[in-house]
Amino acid sequence: RSQIVEAQASIESGLTFLASVGSTAPFIGLFGTVWGIYHALVGLSGATQVVLDKVAGPVGEALIMTAAGLFVAIPAVLAYNAFTRGNRLTLARLDGFAHDLHAYLTTGLRGRPGDKLVDLGAVRAGRGG
């Protein structure tokens, strides 16, 4: 059981980082958006007339920050989900192997529940199974 826990810890390393990137990147992009719009409004605050180029540049940068946040977050979330699924399947196979090995070492019988059990000692002795 302890080896399974060590294997699980090993294959799950890095998933926390992926989850953190996937969950925080949109907020960092949103922060960039707010920052850009803030700078656009500050640029307008002292102006006597509104000029499009004073607003368009900072707002465009703000939208680029939003896109950058999503560009980082979406692949991170997809990779996290793929790795988590792969890890779950690998751990299920490892747990099944550990169960089969334990059953064999304790009973000398080989097989899964519902299968016809095979007595390996009888097979080796030539008596069938």
In short:
With 129 residues, this protein is mainly alpha-helical.
Write the layout of secondary structure elements.
Layout: H1 2-11, H2 15-45, H3 52-107, E1 109-110, E2 118-119, H4 120-124
Antiparallel strand pairs: 1-2
Structure description:
There is one protein chain. This protein is mainly alpha-helical and 129 residues long. It has a domain at 2-88. The protein has four helices and two strands; from the N terminus they run H-H-H-E-E-H. It has helices at 2-11, 15-45, 52-107, 120-124; strands at residues 109-110, 118-119. Strands 1-2 form a two-stranded antiparallel ribbon. Strand 1 and strand 2 form a beta hairpin. It is rod-shaped, with a radius of gyration of 29 Å.
Which features would summarize this protein structure in a list?
4 helices, two-stranded antiparallel sheet, 129 residues, mainly alpha
Rg (CA only): 29 Å
**Sheet having the most strands:** 2 strands, antiparallel
What sort of overall outline do the alpha carbons produce when their principal axes are compared? Answer: rod-shaped
Low-confidence stretches: none
Mean pLDDT: 81
Overall helicity = over 70%
Task: Please work out how many helical segments DSSP would assign.
Answer: 4
Proportion of strand residues: under 5%
Distance between the termini: 30 Å
Q: N-to-C SSE series?
A: HHHEEH
* Number of distinct beta strands: 2
Can you list the strand order of the major beta sheet?
1-2
Structural class: mainly alpha
